[in-house]
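Long-time lurker. I teach an intro course on protein structure, and each term I like to show students one example going from raw sequence to a predicted 3D structure in token notation. This year I'd like something fresh instead of my usual example. Would anyone be willing to generate the tokens for the chain below so I can use it in lecture? Attribution to the forum is fine with me.
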Amino acid sequence: MRAPTSDFPLVLENIRVAAGKITILDGISLTITPGAPTVLIGPNGSGKTTLLRVIMGLTRPASGRVIWGGRETAAPERRAIVLQRPAMLRRSAEANIRYALGRKDPGRAAELLRLVGLAGLERRPARRLSGGEQQRLALARALAREPELLLLDEPSASLDPAATKAIEDTIRAVAARGVKIVMSTHDLGQAKRLAGDIGVLHRGKVIETGPAADFFANPQTDTARKFIAGELLI
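-- Reply from a regular --
Happy to contribute to a lecture. Here you go:
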């Protein structure tokens, strides 16, 4: 699996998204560069999922620009996303990946299943897999696009510790192959384990960014300190 980084950085400039009179993203500017995963944290309703959807081109901002490969574009070139509840096709695990591969090398299906820890489950109906297995299958299906940038929305939400560890192991394996991952999570422990850098969202704004180690040792904003301490943000 190849993941060249020629299209980086991905730059968001003053992104605003609204639904009626409700502002969901409020002037977000962010630069995403290659390297270890970028993890987005923040309370429910802070805009994390919407931000991922804007990056993918699934949600069009009311204003602002997404610059990818040096040009403004909403097309999902070399980008892929796995949503929190991915839909499984009514076919086997391997056939789900073959569908995503299209006319590309069908032999890659087995490689991708091994990468996400599902070797041996090729013939299992996808909808009979456990929740964690379905999430890993969705990861493999997204990787069939050979993305440079993989977006993950709460990839281990509602999973037990064993399934969460399997997801995190898969994320590490994918990142080690050079694919840039941007993911959202509510799990601060997961953010500490996986993140190269952190983005904190609150009320539709990015209130703090920086290397994960520095952020968790010494957050720069009161809002971030309260969030880390488990205080309610309103």
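Some talking points for your students: Helices lie at 48-56, 93-101, 108-115, 131-143, 161-176, 188-194, 212-217, 222-228. The first strand starts at residue 10 and ends at 19.
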